[in-house]
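Hey, can you fold this one?
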Amino acid sequence: MDSEEIVARLLTIVRDVAIELQPRKRLVREVTLDSDLDRDLGLDSLGRAEVVQRVERGFDVQLSEQLIGDAETPADLLQALLGAEHAETRTATRLKPVSLELTTSEEPEQAGTLLEALAAHVEAHPDRPQIAFWMSDEEEATITYGDLDHHARVCAAGLIDRGIRSGERVAIMLPTGRDFFVAFFAVLIAGAIPVPIYPPFRRSQLEEHLRRQGGILRNAQASFLVADDLVRPMGVLLQGLVADLRGLATVDELSRLQALARYTPASPGTVALIQYTSGSTGDPKGVVLTHANLLANIRAMGKAMQASSRDVFASWLPLYHDMGLIGAWLSCLYYGALSAVMPPLVFLANPARWLWSIHRHRATITAAPNFAYEQCLKSVRDEDIVGLDLSSLRVAVNGSEPVSPSTVARFTDRFRLYGFRPEAMSPGYGLAECCVGLAFPPLGRQPVVDRVDRSELTRYGRATPTVPDDENALEFVACGYPLPGHQIRVVDELGHELPDRRQGRLEFQGPSATTGHFRNPDKTHELFDGPWLDTGDLAYIANGDLYLTGRVKDVIIRAGRNVYPHELEEPVGKIDGIHEGGVAAFSSRDERLGTDRLVVMAETSAVTQDEKGQLRGQIAEAAVAVIGLPPDDVVLVPPRTVPKTPSGKVRRTAARELYESGDLSQPGRAVWLQILRLTLSSGGHRLRRAARKAAELGYGAYWWVVLGAIGVVLWPLVLLLPKRRWRHIVTRGAARLVLRLTGIPLRIEGAALPSGAVMIVSNHTSYLDGLVLSAALDRELTFIAKQELEHQLIAGPFLKRLGTIFVHRLDPREGAKDTETILSAAREGATLVTMPEGTFSRMPGLLPFRLGAFLVATKASMPVAPVTIRGTRMVLRSDQWLPRQGEISVHIADPIRADGSDFGAAARLRDRCRDIILRMSGEPDLAQ
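Sure. Predicted structure:
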């Protein structure tokens, strides 16, 4: 085939797909190598995927799935085609069955966090496969529990080395792959909170993508971004748009230190994830989920599905989405089940790969939105699935978007021939505010469809069953019952619970429920109705089953009836000349008349006024036929104008905002212009970043000026005052004055120190610890310090006048004399202060305790008071000379005594004190 034939055949394929999506395109313009797939031909992700599939079949080649997002014109497709390899034996050799031998393992029922669940599996079976990741049709990579644990601890060390602190938010902008799995657990191991956000899909949507992600990052106050090499240049722009973003790195860049020895401690109540939903760009909603929330949801879903380590979950779902992250991956990790994962683009490029993955791994569970099942019906040919066997599937969850009764029926009918059992289809319901899952049908039950009278539901909210031959009936698929431990109810506008078959707002409660939206008190307030959470969905309950009818905010009230956008968008999308999937129906407030207007926004490539006039007439006719009303306004827009989520769902709220702003006809901008606009718009953020940096430098300088000014007065006073008590009084007052003038609050909590001799043992995290203890403890303190300080020019004389006892750490003979000195001080009733770690580090964690002080306390029969300092490491780290403002707390535990007088009693006393301080510090145990 010569070059002209190849070009002609390629353009025919592109033209055919464009015409099928929008038949009137052939009346508008011809398809050339330079035609823009988006702007000229209106090909969205699914349309591009269809083109790639037909090119592969038509030329018998294998193309990269990246073309779906990267190709801008047919010329790009041609270039990829000319460099592609033939794939004549693809079905025969690449899709052969593959299985992994798995042994049964127990779920970690005692785990209180995801980290404990991972640790339990690592201890029990580090070599057990956790993830089987698609690399190509010929290659698959396996990640074991041990692999995941090791690489995540290495990456976590890199995050902590970059200054990531417990509780900070770390955004993860990575495609589906090994790095995402490692980064997610690395963030948790470092004590931070992962914030998954989706990576860019198309260069042509670069500006919109970065601005949208910038809004999420600002709301999350993300301090760090983990990305890949492709995102790095755009990450720099994001850093300019987000004031709190201190840095970014790839997983490889973070993986250059030794593995972190221990996980940063976390409790069930620790925040484990902030999951951002598809809110508007200016008002992103971050759902706060704790370890307890996630494990409760995973366990409840597992109980409903009877999940075990013998299951295999086949998934292509994106990992930045709750269904892919929690439902498909973390659930498998908890139960010890294999997670067979492929990137979403791999599925879009060839939906048959999802089915073959189920076949190869003998997968027992899978899940996807309704559109994925529909895509299999549209794109998978019989010759693509010869020999396919889906009989291993126990559960095929259909959720995350409205479930179509037609799709369910047609998918079941077609793939029954390939072993798919009707009872495996499991339409479910969930939402991010409940982690992921809320309701599932009983196992082994075929899907249930309820047909109700359209007028009764839309006018009066009554889901009245209708006769089978009612062509105007509304159909809804049953989503099952609430998960174990969870409850649902349907309420009216006044919050009164409604009876069966009455439509209202769906509310829920249970252990998976979020505590609210991150840094969005208004949305959090809207979310809660006492102990119940408002889902934002309309629904009714019949015979215990949940039926979803629509989103509250999307319902349009016109002429006394409810109009559901999806029932209007579907028929409009089928009109010749309208881009299917590019239609949004919504209401817009008419302030002049004080009423809501019904608006239909539809994508088209029509350019003449006559063509547009005909389309508007057809849209009006379609609306009257479906809902009995014409729209108040029909807006025809170019392809790629209607806003969508990454998964392709129409963002109606964003469409309304776009409509009301009047910004509907902006042509796609060149990438260089988008980058320029982003760079310019990030200038304000860069100025604010510079101002913040200047403020930090100013504060640090001010801090040292305060310390120096007070020190200049304090040092000679301590040297000149004749009485030790006076010296301690002025030292204590000076320490408190330093903290007060530098704006560092000091909180003291816990028990009171006993009178008489007492040994105070404290953790050591910063050079500030001595100052803080002096300010917090209203006693004459006798510090036990290393002998090297005695000879320092400034510190030596000062500490001597305060009665400090200097000890030799490396000379045993001198150390014995030091012990006698300390014992003498104890017998004289001194309040001894020691930090048995002996040193401190930049990295969080409690080091081993030396025994000397506890031997003294044991011999002197004196009580020991464990004291825990928190916050000084954050104010002034090791190797850091620029203090930062922060809060400091001192917790005084009840004094304890040795349970004997021998060496063993001293060791036990040390261990008891250390356990108390370790628990109160919230830092890792570095002694193990």
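The CA atoms of residues 161 and 843 lie 7 Å apart. Let me know if you want another pass with a different chain boundary.
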